[in-house]
Amino acid sequence: MTKAIRAVVAGLAAVAMFSGVVRAVEVPVNDFPTAARADYVFACMQVNGQTREALNKCSCSVDVVASLMPFADYEEVETILAVRQKGGENTDMFFSYAPLREKINVMRRAQVESELRCF
User: Fold this and answer.
1) What are the φ and ψ backbone dihedral angles of 33, each rounded to 5 degrees?
2) What pLDDT score was predicted for residue 57?
């Protein structure tokens, strides 16, 4: 074998040996659309002040919420809460139906967790 062939074989052996060590990094699912994240951050900043510090904390908060619940569930809870605000006798179900209350509780727990981690 020539030196060039030995070098290629040695290089391929090294690649094969190290290929088992190199692993892909699993990226968390990011199913919250940018507009939904921005809405969350804007609302959070309204409550916590219009400062750079509030921006950082609110951005952290939405990231935590997004890591704890899928966007479909978040969107459903946002809809339930919006209907509750309208009031009236047609909205009674949105206050009394246990599965809907539990969905709201899941989001509230995610928000409490985000406050503990970010604020």
Assistant:
1) -65, 155
2) 98
